[in-house]
Amino acid sequence: xxxxxxxxxxxxxxxxxxxxxxxxxxxxxxxxxxxxxxxxxxxxxxxxxxxxxxxxxxxxxxxxxxxxxxxxxxxxxxxxxxxxxxxxxxxxxxxxxxxxxxxxxxxxxxxxxxxxxxxxxxxxxxxxxxxxxxxxxxxxxxxxxxxxxxxxxxxxxxxxxxxxxxxxxxxxxxxxxxxxxxxxxxxxxxxxxxxxxxxxxxxxxxxxxxxxxxxxxxxxxxxxxxxxxxxxxxxxxxxxx
Length: 241
What we know:
Layout: E1 8-12, H1 21-34, E2 39-43, H2 49-55, E3 65-67, H3 79-82, E4 91-95, H4 102-111, E5 114-119, H5 123-138, E6 148-156, H6 161-171, E7 177-182, H7 186-193, H8 209-240
Helix pairs in contact: 1-8
């Protein structure tokens, strides 16, 4: 089990629908859980794709605490109780909807330590993601609030015109590309079975686990960076006092 001193809250965000937010959320959650990390998956999307994925996930697989955050609390239960984390939770992964309002952006950014932005290699997705990043920085104040941002290129195929166009766009961003998800039907199969791609029986699917291993390593470094920033802010506050 990885040594994590505090909860790391990760929001998967992009206003563009179909860019792979649920793919990232479910595969990241399953990979974290497989490493022995206590993991929670919050589903803010009324389409409930992550919730359905959790509902069909077999009990024999590493446990993931699920919260249908898009639903109002049931009678007799407060919102705080509904959103409470089990003791020892290390990673909280939020699957967010497409097309949400400025208020939603502010709320999700405020709650997150890390924001992961999936993007597809198409002109429409590139333009929509550029607009979203603008809102993320201007409305959500992600930089001002010291949130760590990372791009995940989804359904990538090497040596294609679409991939080249995406790479050209990504080079102009001051946001690291921390993962590239290969264009393979294994991800579709994994969602249908309630598993991560690394949990599939097919041998050729296992090579894709390296994507999620690298992503988790980057998140671990984010944890240390966030901890260092917090300590610096506390020291500055103490000095000022």
